[in-house]
Amino acid sequence: MTNNDVFRRLRYALNLNTQAVVEAFRLSDMKMGQADITSLVKKDDEEGFRECGDDVLQAFLDGLIALKRGKREGAESKVAPLPEQLTNNDILKKIRIALSLKEDEMLAIFKLAKFPVSKSELSAVFRAKGQENYKPCGDQMLRNFLKGLTMKYREGAQD
Question: In terms of pLDDT, which residue wins out, 79 or 84?
Answer without folding.
Answer: 84
